Protein 1
Amino acid sequence: MNQEATPKTAKLSFGDKVLDLPVMVGSEGEVAIDIRQLRAKTGAITYDPGLGNTGSCTSKITFLDGEQGILRYSGYSIEDLAKQSSFVEVMWLLLHQQLPSAAQLAQFTQEITYHTMLHEDLKHLFSSLPKTGHPMAVCAAAVGALSTFYQKNVGSPADNNWGDSVRLLAKMPTIAAYSYKHGIGQPFMYPRNDLGYAANILHMMFGTPCERYEPNPVLARALDLLLILHADHEQNCSTSTVRTVGSSGANLFASVSAGISALWGPLHGGANQEVIEMLMSIRDGKRSAVEFMDLAKKKDSGVRLMGFGHRVYKNFDPRALILKKACDDVLGQLGRQDPLLDIAKELEQIALHDDYFVSRKLYPNVDFYSGIIYKALGIPVEMFTVFFAIGRMPGWIAQWLEYKKDPEAKITRPRQVFVGANQRAYRAVETR
Ligand code: CMC
């Protein structure tokens, strides 16, 4: 429907009431029926489990068209940003909804670089946790704990949260690398200010105090690309979580810590770990690709083709297209081959010609190919979702800040349709 033809109101009749509900049209033509008066005027609420038909906010940060496979950060296509931008520049873009000038980028890079160290006392938090614990749990704890180190601005309405935003962006890689080093019993590596954002992450992950580690620029660029692709994805599960927690007035660190926990789940960011484990199980002969696909189609098997399907993308995920090509590029530049890439391509081909996947519009999502690049970088499987979290950090922060400035924002508090027991008399335990 073109914008002029879009009705200004939607008529809803309910019993003897007829309501003219205002219609909103977004800058890309997406249409929403504003139901804020619905309950007050009719007594009824809407029912939308998973909120697939519900707009929870307006936003200027990211545009996504799932039918056409379009993803743009503040108007810039993900393809252009992947090719020409850097993760640090994308951070600024998401936070300000415009590209920085050269001077702004230099200043911001300086700020990010000089806040990378963690308070020495925070190290004890890592060593108090079991080495076998999942690093996502460790990161959620450490990010939440930042609010105990930076109490000054927490909750202060006068604060614009810039300092805390910079700290989170700067310290997340250090927290991530410490969660890994703690798990393998190696000393924590301090950040190096002479390195770029991605190269510094590789240094903190793989360096040791015994010898100097020089990050390979091919790997650093590949990591930067992954981080750009993960930087924001409008109102996904973890971002909605960050906004929801923030809506209660909780501070930025607490809100983002909750976002990390939401991202951990296998239906969300945790899928990247599951994908590589699935590919390895096929490589190791536990099941053939065809057997695996048959299982994924059986509802009672409990098996899904991980890295496939998306709530919003019903055609293709543009990030997956970029990553599929990047897998070939990165492995080629490193002069390596990975049988997992061949298995992934085989699974994709089977799915593209199988009615089950085609009819349900299930295509590879961002997590399908990202793990192959993480693996080429030497990132251990259990750290994959942590790297997703490093990438998603600017999106979470930008969305949280946008929420804070939104005059229409309210505490998130959905309703429910109660289907439990009606009122009944309490009976003492001995009479039951
Ligand atoms: N393998 C097999 N069947 C699937 C898959 C899959 N990966 N995904 C969806 N289906 C089926 C599902 O069983 C359902 O079938 P039917 O209509 O017969 O009941 C239909 O497709 C629709 O699925 P849904 O679960 O109702 O769709 P949703 O929009 O609620 O879920 C999803 C989206 C991403 C959770 C789901 O596709 C999925 O579980 N994918 C695998 C996990 C994954 O890769 N997650 C990463 C998502 S992208 C990155 C991110 O957000 O972090």
Note: Residues 50, 236, 267-269, 271, 296, 304-311, 360, 362, 365-367 surround carboxymethyl coenzyme *A (CB under 6 Å).
Protein 2
Amino acid sequence: MCGIVGYIGKKQAAPVLIEGLYKLEYRGYDSVGIAVSDGEELRIVKRIGRVKEIECARRERGTVGIGHTRWATNGGVSVENAHPHSYKNIVLVHNGIIENAEKLKYDLLAKGEKFYSETDSEVIAHLIADAYSGDLLGAVMRACSQLTGSYALAVFSTDEPRMLVCARMHSPLIVGKAKEGLVVASDIPAVAEKDARLYTLNDGEFAKLEGDELLFFSAAGRRIGKDTIEFDLNEGCVEWNGRHFMRKEIDEIPKVLQASRLEIENDSCFSDFYKVLCQTEYIQIVACGTAYHSGLCLKSAMERICRVPTEVCIASEYRYSDPIVAKGTLLIAISQSGETADTIAAVRLAKKRGAYVAAVVNVRYSSLTRLADVVLYTQAGREVAVAATKSFNAQLIALYSIAETVASVKGVKAPSLTGLARKAAETIAISETVRSWTPYFVGAKSAYFIGRGADMCAALEGSLKLKEISYLPSEGYAAGELKHGTLALIEPYTPVVAIITRRDIAQKTMNAVREAYSRGAVIFLVTCFKEFCDEKEVTASVLIPKCPPDYSPILSVIPLQLLAYYTSVARGNDPDKPRNLAKSVTVE
Ligand code: M6R
């Protein structure tokens, strides 16, 4: 949610900021802006839209600057609400939500101060300006002490134009020394370069970047030291000349599954994780969105194979549900980004209540990795498209590996996970046929995805994918539940996608298919059983390779990801950057 970047050094700041913003665009892309200063004059350029809209600002002169790409929270999408915000001598960019902004603004208005935007961020600029008396760091510290909520800030003062001050509370921030200057950003790739020394700021900490000196301060204002973080320069390399990242990322699934198995076999972290898992009698999972669906898939496998009771909670519900954390609970937090605010808050609460926390995360050094007792990294590599695809499959193979290991400790025979990479490649090849299904979806009013057991988990994910990038209302449903209400929504030509990968309950799902077909639905089938493809109710089908039914979402989701992709493209959308969404959801 919002990307921030800052630079102070020998080079011209504007090109550095714009390049950094391109790498942060996944965090939000409704408006964008930079502010640069050459010590004399301050220039602010803000536009609605994506980073390319401020290409014209590259030539603005100044060796200090800050930039922002926005995902609107407080205040609509407008140039006024775009960052940077300035008040008197203070200019800032902010990522997060200030929960007491209304109250603070009320007090500032009563003092006669004027506001030009609807944002909570502008309130912070006022607080800092009011607290400023020649010491920017002190003013930022005093202003932050009045804030409730989340923030990552990069601030400069036109009175001290050789200095940037940064602060962090529940929103990620990286600060560092590059070859020719000091840098700050929401995420590593925006500032990573060879030999750069990068540091993460923790909640409540501040950084002062001045000349070529980088100083860190605790919440109490004491100087603190920090260890550099390691980073992989290639992680930021996401240049690609193809049409859409989402399509490329689906194609990478076999490679990701292969890498995941190798990592699991070789990584000592996994064995630590397994030791804990093997002693656990009860598992709670917290996650959001696609990661929540991965959690549902693990529950299904863990309970059916290992008989370990497993509860899956939507993180935003868990954090306010006064959850029971029984002694010996293992909490598994699943997150691609490792920065999802709701998941992080759920983890904090569970830890406070005594849970042992294992994080299944894709992004290194993300906030969740620092909170967890043990981290299991998924091997998806960098995922650029907002819609999660390969990261879901990477989560599944990591989670199923856990179930496989628990089973072996319990002396239960678990199905084998081998060969899934090859089968995923076959599935991608076969599923290309879903492109021919798109005419049925493009003009539809709504669509439904149904299945039972693990197939229902795949149905939920298929439905989320479709609505997220095609903007077509869609529901994922337990096949047996359709007749309890939702069947009323089926009209002639309503597309219904059924997923059938478990022999013992296949006919039960087919009952729901027939009920929908009788009401005029057009039925599409994803299955590993040839005979169902030939049923008269089925308009079109994808026959995926057979795999153990408890693991089947790893394959059955692929045609659904492709269906969402092709429908999105056919509806004229940008599947990589769906409206109103961002890749990393760092606010509540
Ligand atoms: O980074 P996380 O895995 O924690 O993100 C959770 C959700 O925001 C995310 O999975 C979202 O639902 C996806 N964009 C869906 O494709």
Note: The domain at 243-418 is CATH 3.40.50.10490 (Rossmann fold).
Protein 3
Amino acid sequence: MSRQDPHSYADLEQGIIESIGLKFDIDFENRKILSVVKLHLKEAGEGAFDLDTRALKIHSCTTGGEENIPWELGEEDAIFGRRLRLELPAGTQDLEIICETTDGSTALDWLEPAQTAGGRLPYLYSQCQPHHARSIFPCQDSPRVRFGYTAELIVPEGFTAVMAAAPTGVKDGPRPGTRSFLFEMPQPIPSYLTALAVGDIDSRDLSDRVRIWAEPEVLEQAAWEFAEVDSMIGVAEGIFGPYVWDRYDMLVMPFSFPYGGMENPRLTFLTPTLLAGDRSLVNVVAHELAHSWTGNLVTNATMEDFWINEGFTVWAERRILEALEGPEYAALHAAIGRNSLNEALERFGKDSPYTRLKTPMEGVDPDEVYSEVPYEKGFLLVRLLEETVGREVWDQVVARYIERFRFQSITTEELLVFLDEQIPGILRRTAAHRWIYEEGVPENAPEFTSPRLERVRELGAAFASGRMPDQATAGGWSPEEWQLYLQALGQSISLEGCRRLDEEFRLSESGNYEILVTWLALAVRSGFEEVLPRVRQVLTKVGRGKFLRPLYQALLGREEFRPFAAEVFEEMKERYHTLARVAVEGLFRSVKSE
Ligand code: BES
Ligand code: ZN
């Protein structure tokens, strides 16, 4: 067999899925989805046809409900799941699989009412990127394969179902007390962009192409926070070309959602930690929106090329921010990004292959090596390309790139061929090969400075010698300046310093989770016990990995706080999303093995 993706059993020479019909019967009581999955292949096939599955029970495989197709599930693999091998009778182009999910589904998060804002109904959502769609339905779970789909979600009366697709209607369900929500995704998407959520979900229009979905309790706050997103789309279209996904809706998730945002087409999923009350975290929306071009139109071929998705998107995000808020604001974000990249480089160590842009992934679980590297090192390379040829030329190249590769999935090497053809000599001039195939960050990396940035850094450096910023200065800081200031204080500060900072600026009360978590992690590393109740509040409420990881890491770094960390984790571990739980477990393991 020839395998084209290090995380998928799919063999594209056996056949390729063209479209899928999904019927999902959602059973909250038993926490499972019973499904009818209809696969339509590009061409009629015969013989072995391999699909990815994980933690699925297969009930039957037939040719469109008629002839039985012999099938066999392979051995369980921790990364791949189980191969479902079908033996297609000659001429098979349509197949139907009846199956159900089990507790081991890594894509699905089933929440109790207590984990929702309303506390009244349970909630279900999915997170399929990078290789979890297979734990909902059998598919060729590789971004090289794109398909359109239709779906029917059968849910109990009183629930609303949404998908990252166009809603096409609601009707009575097949049983009394059920409703069917219908969807269609006409554009071909990779499996990792399928997404659904079911719960007490309401919506409000923000413009004729933007709608916000959320639990009723947070809808108003969300509508205010994201009120300006329509104009963001206009700005993005001006730079990257027409928005092709028709609508841009957003769903504010429950707190356990493990990411900041997920670019599910037509329906971005967002963490509720973005609801800061001052629109200060809309950069995450700019990022997910930017994926509508870089990622959802032009997609990485495999997770070895993940930086193509994220590096271009961070670059695009900051171009949108620059157009809306000015270059200084974008520079502050780039500086925060550079700090987080440096931390990741240090964590991995300087010879780690995960500090390359093109990362070897054979035998590696992509969730375990998820980091800022593809994002921020990728951003630096794209920015370097832009600076080298000049913005005007670069923007034209990017527009042609999106045009050339739309609805395709590409490798880093295909991107390099394209760049070399568009701008001969560019790869050599930027040392692109070193950026891509070697560890660390080359010396020709773009740097970001601005008067505001320098001022904050100076004040940060002066803290050690007893200098506090005064209210007149720090009172006017943006959230980004606060974050940079706290980062500039280093690994730890004195207990007295912690106390004075918190008293003066009420950091533990910040409604901006980026500031709050940067502060709490610093305070914990400094041994400032007074913040533990606040840390507990965050760890028992929020499931976003970006916040859980640094807080647990800081706690585990101090022996006296380890019992506290263990106790909170014990209380929470069943309620964190599998991904977040596994990440935190990894931190505990590395402390034990020290
Ligand atoms: N696509 C990612 C999230 C993701 C990556 C999920 C890999 C699963 C596997 C999303 O676009 C993202 O990057 N989110 C960031 C937002 C940020 C960079 C502004 C996040 O969640 O923090
Ligand atoms: Zn992203």
Note: The radius of gyration is 24 Å.
